[in-house]
Structure formats: C-alpha cells, structure tokens
Amino acid sequence: MSEVATQAPLLEVRGVSKRFGATQALNDVSFDLRPGEVHALMGENGAGKSTLMKIISGNYAPDTGSIHMLGEQVVMASPRDAMTAGVGIIHQELNTFPEMTVAENLAVGNEPNRAGVLNRRQMLVDARDKLDHVGATGINPKTPIGRLSVGMQQMVEIARAMAEDVKVLVLDEPTAALSTSESNQLFELIREMRERGMGLIYISHRMEEVWHLADRVTVFRDGNLVGTRDMRATGPDAVRPNDIVKMMVGRDVDDLYGHERHELGDVRLEVEELTDGADIGPVSFSVRGGEIVSMVGLIGAGRTEVGRLLYGADRAASGTVKLDGEVLRVRGPKEAIAKGIGMLPESRKDQALFLEMSVRDNTAMSTLSDYSSGGVLKFRKMRSKVAAIFDSLAVKTASQATESRSLSGGNQQKLVLGRLMLERPSLMILDEPTRGVDIGAKSEIYRIIKEIAQAGTAVLVISSDLPEALGISDRLLVMREGRLVAELDASSATEEGVMEHATGVYADDTTRNDA
Amino acid sequence: MTTNTAAATNVSPKARNAMANLGYWWDKVGIFAVLILLCAFMAVMAPSFLSIDNGLNVARSVSINAILAAGMTMIIITAGIDLSVGSILAVSGVAGVLLFVSGTPSILAVLGGILVGAFAGFINGAFVAWLALPAFIVTLGSMTYLRGIAYSLLEGQPLIASDLGYRGIGNGAVAGIPTPVVVMVVVYVVFWFILERTTFGRHVYAVGGNIEAARLAGINVKRVLAWVYTIAGAAAGLAGIIFSARVLSAQPTAGESYELDAIAAVVLGGTSLMGGRGRILGTLVGALIIGVLSNGLVLMNVPFFYQLIVKGLVIVLAVAIDSLRRLSKSGT
C-alpha cells in the first residue's frame, strides 16, 4: 500500500476551473489518481463531479488549469484525445445500439475492414478477446445486445472502453440500473482492474458502495473540492460514514432533517399480503396518520414496485389494501387519487413533469376538475389555489405561466409535491423525494414532508439515501429481494444495522475494502 | 493551451448570441411576422394582391385546409399524426351528398356527413389508444380504406348534385364574407376554447408532453386519445361537407394529399411533431401563409412547378428557424 502511494500519479488535475454563464461549475480543483486505486468522487448533484469528468474525458475544455498523465501534460480537446491518452469512461446511461450484436457494438467506430468491406470473422475474434479480457466469458458476441440484461450490457460497454489500452477508467454511477447480483459482479471486475494497476474513478451517491470499494474518497460541493479522505486509514484517522456525509452537506447532518418527534394518530394504511404475483411480496405493513415510514433497501429490492402497486400504477395480483378501514380496490392512478392515495414518482422528468407546460398547469394537473365546471376551467380559482401552494412550498418561479422546464430540480420537485398536496390524499407515497435536488431544496422538502405528516397524512417514503431515511422517518421498513425483512425504529437504527438487513450480510464492519 | 482548446471546442459566443437573439425574436412575433412580410412582398410584386376581393379569395381558398389543420393540430399535440384526413374529407362529402339525394333534409345530411367523419376518426383513435398502435400506420391504413369506401359508395363515378340543399355552406356568404371563411373562424374559436380553456385541453397537452406522467397524474390517457382523433375526424367531416357544397357534387377523389398541406400548416404554426407543444392560432397563420404563397405566386404568373419549389422551401425554412430557436433555448 505504501509503495502505491509514493508512485507518480497516473492522472493529475491541477487547478482546474470551469464556468458556465453565471455558474462556477468548478473552482480551482486539484485531484490525482494513483495506479491501482479506486478513487471515489462524491457530492450532491451539481457539486462539480460530472463537470470534472467531462473535462477529463475531453468533452469540455477547462477555463484554467491543466491535466497530466504519468507526469506529462496532456490536452484533451476531444473524447478521441482522451481515449488516445488512455482514459475510458462508462456513462451513467447505456450507450449501446440495441438492435446490433455484441460484436458490432464492440466494433462501432473501429470496424475491421478491407477497403470498406467488413471483416466479420475478425470482428467476432476481436469481440471474444475483449469480452474475455473483462471476464465476460459467458456473453456470446453474436447476440443482439438489446437481449442482454442491463448488467451484461454494461459489461460490454466496459469491454469496449477497455479495448484501447486504458489506464484510467471513469465509472459514472455504474450501479444505478443494476440488480444486486449484477452490482456484485461489477465490483469483482473493478477489484480485478485495480489489481492490474489501473486507476478507477468511481462516481456514486451510494455510501455503502463507496465504503466497500474505494481506497480514497474525494468530496465536492458547489464546484469546490471539499477534501480527500483515505479510506484505508485506521486508528484515529479512520473515516466514518458520517464524516463523508458531513463533507457533502457542509453542516451537521442532524439539523438538516429537524429532530422533533410528534404525536401519531390511528392506523390509516393497512397492507396485507400485497404481491404482484412474481418477484414482489407478499408484503404486509401499516402506516399511522402523522407517521413517516421509509422503505429502504438496495436498488432492485422492490421498494418502488410496492409503491406502484399501492398507487395502481402496476396491477397487484393479490393482497388487500385498507385505507382508514375501508378496503380499496385500485385499478389505476386515477382511482387511487380519487380514493385518497397520492404518489410522487421515482423519476421526476420521465414520470411526473410536463416540461413544456406552465408551472401552474403542472401543479394543478391532477385536480383540474376542482377548478372547472362542465369541463371549462375557472382560471381565477386555479391561480389562487396554485399561488397558495407555491407560497407554502416557497417555489421560486418568475410567474405561474413559466415553463416548468426552466425551473431548478428542487423547484420542479416542489411542483410535483404541490400537485400531490392539492389532491389532499390520506396516504402520500414519496418515491425518492429529494433525488437530484440541491441541498437547500432538500432541507425545505424535509420540512414540507414533516408538515404534511403533522396534518395527519400517512406518509410512505421510498429512499435510497440512508441518512435521509434515518433522519426524517419515525419507522423504517427494510426490503430485500422483494420481501420485507425488517422493521426498525428510526430513532435507534443505524446505517450499519440497516445495511445488514438490506444486504443480508450480517457481519461486522471490518470486512470493508477488499474482501 | 487553454485558449486553444476553448476555441476548438466551443461555439463562439457571438454565434451563440446571434442564435439566442433570433430565438427571442421568433418567440415574440414568430410566424405572424413571416405572414406580414410575405403579404408585403406580394403586395409589392403583384399590385392586385392587396384588394378586399383577393383577400376574401385567399381566405376562402385556405378555409378547407385550415379546418383540416385545426384537427391535425390537436392530434400532433398528442404526439400523433393523421394521414387519413383527406380520405375522411372524401367519405364525409360523399355521405352528405348521398344522404341529400336520398331525400334527407339538408341539415341532417350535413350532420350525417360530419358524424361519418367523427366515426372514421374514432376508429383511428380506438386503434391508437386501446391497441397502442403507431398513429402513422393506423392512419396510413385508414387513408387507403376510406378512399376505397368513397369510391365504392359511388361505384367509382362522381355524383353531380347541382340542386344540393346545403350548397350555401360552400358558395354562400354571411355579411359579405364567404360562408367557408365564417365556418373556419368558428372552428378556430371552438378549438382555441377547447385547447386553452377546458380541462380536456390541458389533458391533451399533458398526454402529448409526457404520456406516462399523464397516466400517473390520474388522466385517462386512452379516452383523451380516442376523443382527439374523433374530434379531428369531425373537423375533416365538416371540411368534406364544405368541399362537396363548393363543387356541388360527391367526388371520390376529393382531398387527395390534403393531409400534407394540413401537416405543413401545423408545423409552420410552431407545433412540435414531438408533441406537447403547439398553438392553434399558429396553425391558422401557417395555413394562411401557404394560401398567400399560392395565391401570390399565381398573381405573379409564376408557373405551377416553380410554385411547388417555393412552397416546399418555405416550409423547410420555417421549421429550420423553429429548430434553431429550440437549440438556442436549451443552451449549452
């Protein structure tokens, strides 16, 4: 370990700044990556991680500062330059051509040919080599890539990135769409690449992944590099998860969520043996009026699916759902809203917002019949209702007619929250309520959630952000592989305790880093 | 080194500013300014262009396309398309005339024709909404079978009806204004009201902007889609009645390729083919631009084939400007 630390850095970024209009996206950032290390980058959305990665991979030119590979200054004027210098990047979203075969995908842009005529045999041989190189021996190069699972497709992408003598591999939230077992496979591969002396930059929001994988962690906030911590340090220098969170947030985490507990009412939601007939459930649980219950677990544990079953977005196979003692049979979102269930979907942009429409229309969309008679809208009433909601949520918008596209992530999320509040539900399901919003808006959203609960609403939060779930909830429901595996009191639960239930690995904490 | 790479990878600020300014200008006055400029140009080139008679002539000549385009606008806002409007026009016109010659009172014949159009639209909508088939394919099919039905009803021959009871709809005038123009204005007022002032209108934009979000917001997406195609079918039916009244006959070939002019008017008017964005009054201006262009070029004695070239280029140019506007809006 110590000899690794003394080697010249593989990649070094010196004093890089980048400004977009009025936003200082990166401010005098210096950062280095050693051979044989996994260096995690953490920070809120908009903290500057992605901007730095786009500079390293040749997508943006820095305003000031320089990039060095193995001690030599390099200019990354294009993605091509970065590849030549030995920097590969795996983007958050898949960049595959689903109808083309694995071999064709691997060869894109660099097809073996003779006078423009494809050499298919060579292409297959190359593909086999590249796949074997990343240990993906089970993938057939002749398969259309769209038929592979997301995890397998990502393997192919890594194989493609590795093809060009890559020394530095950047992985941008690589597990976002992977199942648990696929993620574990990826972690294995990352450890192997580390063994081979490659440098890996690992961007993630997930503390537990970073905790297990990273040798060093660098935290960004508002375009500044807050600090780098050595995860292998022991004794008094040992890093605790909360230290990292504190660096990301910039203040003590406790005041972010607000502490006061409040009186709980009667049970409002009772779920018994709810299942989709396949991977999800059966699950049984209840939520009281005024109570905030968070569902936690790894990605793919089935939390979002349970929320969608309750809301009627997907059809349940069996089970009963009772709201205020009445058995509900919800066949779709429209009925769910009418019966008193509201849901904030997981993906704001794909599932909640109408980006071309005004902020007013977005907020009022599910309650239009409240401001109309005979289908004709009463604008005055609509305007005043929306204005009242905007007031209480502190939505920052130029006017009610502003296109929702132009709002910040936090304000867009408030529009969707406002839509839910206008529905006046008895049960509110909030799926990742603070995903992709900045820290200021986060604390406001927490305040709003608390207020909603205090008004007597039953609140079911689905969150992948453990500190958040622990901070805002009264109770935690831990899910693993479609089942509820634990129910914990939030005031006494710890992140480690939750993770044990979520992963099913009940071990102590010393196994972190490489196993 | 930094200045070098910056120049290599960034669009120059000047060019970006120019694009943003153009975008701003286009947002403010947009297609309407194009219409005014076009009229001014035609007035200079062909002095007879600027007369009340010619103005009414242009308005009458665009009325049928404008009515088709109104329905088309609503469909395109939902991210759909209707290639069958020309064929619906034909079937509805034929139905109206056949009803009349078989002794149906004029008013019922007119309503019958419109209902036939609405029903044809509903069939389109049913396939699009409940079977989730692509609108392009569904309406490509109905374009063909409806044309076939129009021919079959007449056994392939036009049917002249010079005593058509409702011929006033095509040839009459209200207070000096041709009836088709009056009908067109009424249609646009109704469509504007539906799209801008009703819950259904909000739902139309929502379905086109983000169909999954619309469903999760409790909107009955399928019913909205079915209604949109039905309404557009009714508009095409009305256009068919006007057409048959104008030519005093049932014509199986009526409205061939009219769908293209209707789509052109919608796109010129700034409605996005991706759905979710569009204004009905923009479509009216778009239809007028096409009409003014045709009329002016005729007055200028430009041969027909050159007219086609100019019309096509104007459409591409207008859409290109609109696309630039959106590029500059989305910023970096």
From TrEMBL, chain A:
Membrane topology summary: Peripheral membrane protein
Gene3D superfamilies attached to this UniProt entry: P-loop containing nucleotide triphosphate hydrolases
Localization per Swiss-Prot or TrEMBL: Cell membrane
Gene Ontology MF: a single term: ATP binding
PANTHER family: CARBOHYDRATE TRANSPORT ATP-BINDING PROTEIN MG119-RELATED (PTHR43790), D-ALLOSE IMPORT ATP-BINDING PROTEIN ALSA-RELATED (PTHR43790:SF3)
Keywords tagged on the record: ATP-binding, Cell membrane, Membrane, Nucleotide-binding, Repeat, Sugar transport, Translocase, Transport
PROSITE patterns named in the record: ABC_TRANSPORTER_1, ABC_TRANSPORTER_2
A GO CC term attached to the entry: plasma membrane
Transmembrane residue ranges: none
Species this protein is from: Tessaracoccus rhinocerotis
Record domain ABC transporter: where: 11-247, 239-506
Classification via CDD domains: ABC_Carb_Monos_I, ABC_Carb_Monos_II
Protein name stated in the entry: Sugar ABC transporter ATP-binding protein
Segment forming the signal sequence: none
TrEMBL record, chain B:
CDD domains tied to this protein: TM_PBP1_transp_AraH_like
UniProt membrane topology term: Multi-pass membrane protein
One Gene Ontology cellular component annotation held by this UniProt entry: plasma membrane
UniProt keyword annotation of Acetylation present: no
Membrane-crossing segments per the record: 29-50, 62-81, 87-120, 127-153, 173-195, 224-245, 280-298, 304-324
Sorted UniProt keywords: Cell membrane, Membrane, Transmembrane, Transmembrane helix
Localization in the cell: Cell membrane
UniProt keyword Cell membrane, yes or no: yes
GO molecular function, one term: transmembrane transporter activity
Coiled coil: none
Domain of life: Bacteria
UniProt protein name: ABC transporter permease
